[in-house]
Design a protein that fits this description.
mainly alpha, transmembrane, coiled coil
């Protein structure tokens, strides 16, 4: 007969055995149902937990002994906190290695997930690059228009030169004189930009003199020579025509050359873009496939660690449930014995306390 049965026998009338059955059924506590291991899953490699759990003392492994402990504490003046702390301490020794192992598994899983996220970010960036590359359209280059404008500008300058040469020929047979007058009049060809093409620029007398003096002097020299062979009206018209050409033709020629350079740069950029559309996407697609393989390898590496952590968490949960069940069992017997303690005589208490 255990101490618990002996304790209840003090309150059991000999003629009423049903009373004992009623009391025992009142104090009976069902052990919590622990999750059964699933055996129908396909075999998966899971790393060993590599955790050696300390064995529990006999008074924790045997529920009847724990019940007796609860009765003894209930009959004495001691409180239940010390025994509950002892139960929690024993189970804490078993759960601490599992908690550490779970933390290690979690850190390893987080490391793998960070690497997987990096691969996925690289894949996203490469996909974005491919889309941006395909969305880029070749720039429009007005090469034909620019070449036509350049050709017309050159013809205009050549015509202006021959007009000057014909005007100066009666007085100056040497053609180099005509070339010098022409280049002096085309002085604006060497300046950065004519004030005719600038907006919101303050025109000073010095700027006006710098840009107009040589073209005006050249046109005036040609006008003086034209008066010797032509009428005043014809010479005046020649003066105005040549002077305006001097002011604008040089800048027009330079602008056409700049447009030609820009158009050639655009054509080169378009060819480079077409080459990139043909060469870069296959390279990036291979990199994306490699990143997919690397991420899949990391996921495969992560899977057994996830399984191991799940098993460790399940084992930790079972231990905690078992601990709480034992604590509740002890408390129920303690509270029942404490509630019935005052109904016992001193002799009955001594008999129970000295029971072996």
């Amino acid at each position: 007969m255990t101490l618990l049965n002996r304790f209840f026998s003090l309150f059991r009338p000999s003629s009423s055995p049903a009373l004992l059955n009623s009391v025992e059924s009142t104090n009976a506590i069902e052990s919590p149902a622990l999750p059964e291991p699933v055996n129908n899953q396909p075999p998966v490699y899971v790393p060993d937990l590599d955790v050696t759990l300390e064995p529990l003392p006999n008074w924790l492994t045997d529920e009847e002994t724990l019940r007796d402990e609860g009765v003894l504490f209930g009959l004495s003046d001691a409180g239940p906190d010390e025994k509950i702390a002892a139960i929690q301490s024993y189970f804490g020794q078993q759960t601490a290695p599992l908690a550490s192992m779970i933390e290690l598994y979690t850190d390893e899983i987080n490391t793998l997930e960070e690497q997987i996220e990096k691969f996925e970010n690289q894949i996203t960036k490469l996909r974005s690059r491919i889309d941006q590359l395909y969305d880029q359209q070749p720039a429009t280059a007005n090469l034909v228009r620019t070449l036509a404008g350049l050709g017309l500008s050159l013809l205009m300058c050549i015509g202006n030169f021959y007009l000057i040469d014909e005007t100066l020929r009666p007085a100056f047979s040497n053609q180099w004189i005509a070339i010098g007058v022409f280049l002096a009049g085309m002085f604006n060809l060497f300046g950065p930009m004519s004030f005719f093409y600038e907006e919101d620029t303050r025109l000073t007398g010095r700027r006006l003199l710098a840009e107009v003096s040589l073209p005006l002097a050249s046109a005036g020299f040609i006008f003086a020579q034209a008066l010797q062979t032509q009428s005043v009206g014809m010479a005046s018209a020649l003066f105005v025509f040549v002077f305006v050409l001097f002011l604008l033709a040089g800048k027009l020629l330079l602008s056409m050359l700049t447009s030609l350079r820009n158009d050639l740069s655009l054509l080169q950029a378009n060819r480079r873009l077409m080459g990139q559309k043909q060469q870069q996407p296959p390279v990036w697609e291979r990199q994306i496939e490699q990143f997919h393989r690397d991420a899949a390898a990391l996921r495969t590496q992560r899977q057994p660690i996830l399984m191991a952590r799940t098993l460790a968490q399940a084992k930790l949960t079972r231990l905690n449930v078992r601990r709480d069940g034992l604590v509740n069992l002890f408390l129920s017997e303690f509270e029942l014995a404490r509630s019935l303690r005052d109904r016992l005589t001193e002799q009955q208490r001594n008999v129970l306390m000295n029971y072996e």
